[in-house]
Amino acid sequence: MTKPYPLLFQPEFKERVWGGRALEQFGLELPEGHIGEGWMIADHPNGTTTIVNGELAGRGLDQIREQLGREWFGAKGFSEVNGRFPLLIKLLDCNDNLSVQVHPTDDYEGLPKGELGKTEMWYVLDAKPDAKIIYGLKEGVTRDVLKEAMENGTVMEQLQEVPVKAGDTFYIPAGTVHALCAGVVVAEIQQNSDTTYRIYDYNRPGLDGKPRELHIEDSLNVTAYEGSGATKMSTEGAVPGEWLQLAQSPYFIVEKGVVNGAWELSTSEDSFTIIVVCDGKGILRWDGGSIDYTSGQCFLLPANLGTYTLDGESTVLRSYLP
Ligand code: ZN
């Protein structure tokens, strides 16, 4: 029986028309090209990450789920029915604007079989001066108004723009129209889904030179015109040794923690814990081992790990299932 330990993965990098090279700042070795996404912890048909440390090195997260999921993911994190790991953890480098998009809820009938809806949250790791994002519709925009704007190419006039800086966080429930824009690097915690409905793509060519497909009907169907429950906050108030809650959804709870010295913590029995290191470095210790950690790394702590210690000077996100 393998003793539980924190798992570190080889990321799956994705080239995107809007990507860049900014993820190199985390010491990650990127393949060539415009790298937009690093899938850091993934168990999805479009990308599965492989463990790089400890006894289970070389195995995929999907294999770990099959072999150890019940004990290691906890009762909330493991399901016989939809076996997939419930969350997908990414780092995004938005060197250019992402398409204006919206994601469906779990019960949308247009979803491909086996696919989930997509509620997500962002924590801004880095932002250029004057960086902004698109976050929600302007007040009073109805399905008809959005439809007409899509047909006339005036969608941007119906959307809210919000300035962003490092440390800001955004909760984006399914149904929220949104777009990350040029000059931001974010950590994304989301439902394990890869379903995006594209509303507008700035009339630009995709990686293959042709415009990327838009999804007019699906977008209109899944948009939450009455509001989706989206929230945003600045997280400057986080103090060492206390968790500041950033998002609480039916799918995940995400908290920010400032590590200043040794902080003793514990996993909960019914859910795994994911630690995303936003900045700084330190040592992660547990019963039976330790590993150095540094910004940009994402660890999956098994539910049955028990007590562990973060020791260093760093900012981290902690995610687990509600
Ligand atoms: Zn999205």
Question: What ions, cofactors and ligands are bound?
Answer: zinc ion
CATH superfamily descriptor of the largest domain: Jelly Rolls
Radius of gyration computed on alpha carbons? 19 Å
What's the total number of strands? 22
Mean pLDDT: 95
Proper CATH architecture of the largest domain = Sandwich
Distance between the termini: 28 Å
Count every helix, treating DSSP H or I runs of 4 or more residues as helices.
3
Any low-confidence stretches, pLDDT <50, length ≥5? none
* Name of the level-1 CATH class of the largest domain: Mainly Beta
* Oligomer state of the chains in this structure: single chain
Q: State the share of residues found in helices, binned by percent.
A: under 10%
CATH topology of the largest domain: Jelly Rolls
Envelope shape = globular
Structure in a nutshell:
With 322 residues, the chain is mainly beta.
Describe the structure in your own words.
The chain is mainly beta and 322 residues long. The chain has helices at 61-73, 143-152, 216-222; strands at residues 7-10, 12-20, 35-41, 43-44, 47-48, 50-51, 87-94, 100-102, 120-127, 132-137, 159-163, 168-172, 178-180, 184-191, 197-200, 231-234, 244-248, 253-266, 273-286, 289-294, 298-301, 307-320. Strands 1, 6, 17, 18, 19, 20, 21 and 22 form an eight-stranded antiparallel β-sheet that branches. It has a seven-stranded antiparallel β-sheet with strand order 2-3-7-14-9-12-16, with no helix packed on it. It has a three-stranded antiparallel β-sheet with strand order 11-10-13, with no helix packed on it. It starts with 6 loop residues before the first strand and ends with a strand. It binds zinc ion. Zinc ion is lined by residues 101, 103, 120, 178.
